[in-house]
Amino acid sequence: TGYQRRVHGEHRFEFMSKQITQGDRLSDGVATVLLSLGLSALSSFTTYKLLQHKKEKEKYEKGKIHPKVKSLTSFSEDDFFASRSLQRNADHLGSQLYKEWRFLRSVESDILEVPHLFDFIDNPENYPTIMSPLQGNSSYRSVFGGEGFLPAESFIEIGGYVLSTTSFSPKSPEEDAKKLLKAGPRNHLFFAPHDVRAVIVTCGGLCPGLNVVIRELVMTLYYNYNVREVYGIKYGYKGFYSYDWIPLTPQVVKDIHHLGGTILGSSRGGFDLDKIVNSLVEKKINHAYLIGGDGTHRGITVLYQEIARRKLNIAICGIPKTIDNDIPLIDKSFGFQTSVEEAQRAITSGMVEARAAEYGVGLVKLMGRSAGYIALHASLASRDANICLVPEFHFDVNGPHGLYEFIYNRLLARRYCTVVVAEGSADAIRDEHLSAKGTDASGNRVLPDVGKLLKDGITNFCKSKGMDLTLKYIDPTYMIRSIPANSVDREMCASLAQHAVHGMMAGFTGFSTGFINLRTCYIPLSEITKGLRRILPTDHDWQRLLASTGQPSFLNGENANEHGGECNIKITTM
User: Fold this and answer.
1) 236 close to 204: Cβ distance less than 8 angstroms
2) Residue 18 burial (CB < 10 Å; 0-12/13-18/19+)?
3) Judging by DSSP bridges, how do beta strands 287-292 and 360-366 pair with one another?
4) Closest to 551 measured CA to CA, from 375, 356, 365, 410
5) SS3 (DSSP) at 348
6) Residue 337 and residue 359: Cα distance in Å, rounded?
7) What is the Cα–Cα distance from 374 to 366, expressed in whole angstroms?
8) What's the rounded Cα separation, in Å, for the pair 293 and 390?
9) Are 525 and 112 in contact (CB under 8 A)?
10) DSSP string spanning 327-338?
11) Whether 115 contacts 509, CB under 8 Å
12) Buried (b) or exposed (e) across 522-561, using 16+ Cβ within 10 A?
């Protein structure tokens, strides 16, 4: 359902004025009548809300609302909507939220455990939870805000889960599937909305959709939950202690989903545990949303452990981001689909260049440090790749069954060849050694340039055979990650952000949001950081690629007839 815009009186009047005066075919008399009716209705509504707010304030001052709630919230004359959830809370201190937490910690539950702030407080059964402002009698969407539009059946039931797989067999029965906590709004909140101070940070490399996530986090916090203090952290982890924080409001973020990159900036490294946690405490932050890949999630894990050790009232979550699509368990990460779409255009360009020459080769290098999913799926989508090389499978470049000999023979027979290679494939070459060039700020190896190696190697090999080769080398690395998200990724980003907010407002912490079997889940950080997902020889997508390209294994000797030997690459963790 997303968020709902709250249109205050002056904005409503401005909207009506514009609609009536900007080219609508209405007579002056009709326009005057409609404006008068609008002003009259606005005046009546404002008067009613002021009276209602006054009564609620009097009840508060007389102590009719639970006394523990006083420390969690504050009242102001100019905010009608904040008091609505507090009024509903008066009779709901024995909440569904506590019952869900108790069930998830019981022996009856086999759902993967997601930490909750109830774990760190004494007597959680007495904690004054807040009834969600999203609750309403129907799904009717009021023009005055994002509250009260969800019927009771729209909230997540106690014990809701999603299976980690939907494919079963005698060797893999349903009982072996993991159960993940179902994401979505809870009918009670751990945090009082006016007590929430949230931060958002983007870490690591760029990825399509970052701005969509930022926008939706802000909009959901602001319009659905009345959270008014949201800050952006600049340039990754180091921004917590090195830069001024940026106040984020709907006005600031309303159009950023049309932009690539991230308005907050990003960087690798800069992780200083004490400085980050201390800055959260000093500025009274209790919601931290961190957007990043596997390295970022390892940092989130360390932050969560320190916050838990100190028993701080801070919820922290991750939103998985990597165009390499190598995060385990989830269906795919946001931005991947957009990157594949853009990479497909580069492959098509390589094919066109190759076919235009007498003996033409189009060589396209794509991102994929340890997993070749972009190269694989872009090749499958384009149908124009004749060879696809990924980091997961060994191959030889020299020898009678090597890559160079195969390309030469194809050029003799077909006159052109389109080669797609993932950037991490240098590690998969058996008969050439390329040394890494140190590590970056995140501890990742700086990869040798496999594109240049193949470009020079293919050219020199064919020339040694007397062939006048034309090779066009295309490297769209930064083009595919810096563009705005497409419609598929925008929808995914919005859903991930909204469900992250729902989970944090309910008090869950130390988790990441992700799609599993097309359902959004809260995933324990330990599951996200177990390792990297990689292509397997038995994966149907890889088998479909081999059927499409017809490529051999490029292995000499005893393994010459196999479709690629699985490559075990050492992966630096941090």
Assistant:
1) yes
2) exposed
3) unpaired
4) 410
5) helix
6) 33
7) 7
8) 20
9) no
10) -SSSS--BTHHH
11) yes
12) bbbbebbbeebbbbeeeeeebeebeebbebbbbbbeebee
| β partners of residue 231 | 199, 247
Please enumerate in sequence order all residues whose Cβ is within 8 A of that of 108, keeping only pairs 6 or more positions apart, or say none. Answer: none
**Closest among 179, 160, 236 to 503, alpha carbons compared:** 160
| pLDDT at res. 432 | 85
Burial of residue 303 (CB within 10 Å: 0-12, 13-18, 19+) is buried
* Gap between the Cα atoms of 454 and 451, Å rounded: 5
Show the DSSP H helices in 90-154 as ranges. Answer: 96-104
From 395, 397, 346, select the one nearest 367 (Cα to Cα): 346
Helix (H, G, I), strand (E, B) or coil at 280: helix
DSSP H or E stretch at residue 360:
strand 360-366
Q: Which two tokens stand for residue 44?
A: 């009546």
pLDDT for the residue 445 = 73
Residue 149 C-beta-side C-alpha neighbours within 13 Å: 17
Q: How far apart are CA 32 and CA 38, in angstroms?
A: 10
Query: 172: how many CB neighbours lie within 10 A of its CB?
Result: 11
d(CA 192, CA 60) in angstroms, rounded, equals 15
For helices 373-382 and 336-356, what crossing angle results, to 10°? 60
pLDDT of residue 443: 66
Q: What's the pLDDT at 557?
A: 81
Q: Please, which residues have CB within 8 angstroms of residue 290's CB and are 6 or more apart in sequence?
A: 201, 203, 296, 299, 300, 303, 316, 317, 318, 319
pLDDT for 12 equals 33
Q: Are strands 315-320 and 511-516 parallel, antiparallel or unpaired?
A: parallel
* CA dist list (Å): 334 to 142, 253, 494: 31, 19, 10
Q: Which of these, 211, 307, 293, lies nearest to 260 by C-alpha position?
A: 211
Q: What is the spatial distance between Cα 264 and Cα 211, in angstroms, rounded to a whole number?
A: 9
For residue 319, what is the enclosing H or E element?
A: strand 315-320
Distance from C-alpha of 414 to C-alpha of 359, rounded to nearest angstrom: 9
pLDDT at 150: 82
Whole-angstrom distance, CA of residue 188 vs CA of residue 97: 6
| Cα distances (angstroms) measured from residue 393 to each of 169, 290, 470, 534, 552 | 27, 33, 27, 10, 12
Where do the DSSP E strands lie in 413-555? 416-422, 470-474, 511-516, 519-524
Q: What is the pTM of this model?
A: 0.81
- Write out residues in the chain with pLDDT < 50, as ranges: 1-39, 41-49, 53, 56-57, 59-93, 143-144, 563, 568-574
In the chain, the amino acid numbered 540 is: H
Catalytic residue annotation: 324
